[in-house]
Amino acid sequence: MIWGDKTRRTALPFRIFCRVLGLVLCSNAVTVYFASHSTRTVVVTTLACSLLLQLSYFASVLFLIWRSGCVSRAGQRAEHFGSCEDVGSQPPDHEEVRNESSDVTQLVSWAAHRYSVEAR
Q1: How many Å apart are CA 75 and CA 78, to the nearest integer?
Q2: Positive or negative CA dihedral for 100, 105, 110, 115?
Q3: pTM beyond 0.85
Q4: Measured between alpha carbons, how far is 33 from 27 in angstroms, rounded to an integer?
Q5: How many Å apart are CA 95 and CA 34, to the nearest integer?
Q6: Which of 28, 54, 76, 107 is a good FRET partner for 68, with 20 to 30 A between their CA atoms?
Q7: Pick the residue with more confidence: 88 or 11?
Q8: Angle 39-82/14-36 helices, nearest 10 degrees?
Q9: Kind and range of the H or E element at 46?
Q10: Euclidean distance between CA atoms 112 and 104, whole angstroms
Q11: Closest alpha carbon to 43 in 26, 58, 57
């Protein structure tokens, strides 16, 4: 899947964004006009609402950029600490651990057998 295809499916189309933005600003203007009956107040509050929407959009973009940077840095740290070849060590060999534990079991059974033979 190409990155652009995924973005098109999940992104908000520009037409819908413009309609929602217009709806919010118009509803704000109508509400303020019915509350104050002043055209000057309607213009000022609509401009303030528009500025507030732009600031919140800018802040959300900055947050998404910051978050993507944190995720990529975390991924780089995981790659750095997760690779054994870079430092020359090898991952643990579980077969070796099993062999050592079976050696201990054999040693314990040999000691128990020897102890029982000597006790007779």
Answers
A1: 5
A2: positive
A3: no
A4: 10
A5: 80
A6: 54
A7: 11
A8: 140
A9: helix 39-82
A10: 12
A11: 26
